[in-house]
């Protein structure tokens, strides 16, 4: 009795799918365990629905957590809605240099093209070359 090559291919594909399912499941469990280990009182957390706050306590008996969203405002949520621990971000020096260049460029542009804000028409230029034809002069 000969085995059909199509059957062999289907069994190999099925085995690969099962392998990847178990691998992803283990990976997800590992990530969840790592996140739970970071969920300690005092940590900045974000919930599944996008609420940020400071974790005050976790009660594993009734699966609840107390989160302080702002000073004096404490909410009680289910422990499973705590999505992740928010890590503080540090601005990179390269980004600060780019911001400084943009600010410097804007200052130079404003000096070259000064605009009178107290003019009758907003946006009237200071220099004499931009006067409208037929406009009265102040002389």
TrEMBL record:
Compositional bias of kind Basic and acidic residues: 110-139
Pfam families, sorted: YajC
Region feature Disordered, mapped onto this chain: 92-139
Entry's Gene Ontology BP terms: protein transport
Subcellular locations according to the entry: Cell membrane
Assigned GO CC terms: plasma membrane
InterPro entries to which the protein is assigned, alphabetical: Preprotein_translocase_YajC
Keywords in alphabetical order: Cell membrane, Membrane, Protein transport, Translocation, Transmembrane, Transmembrane helix, Transport
Topology class, membrane: Single-pass membrane protein
Transmembrane segments: 6-22
Similarity-based family: Belongs to the YajC family.
The protein, known as: Preprotein translocase subunit YajC
Originating organism: Leifsonia aquatica (Corynebacterium aquaticum)
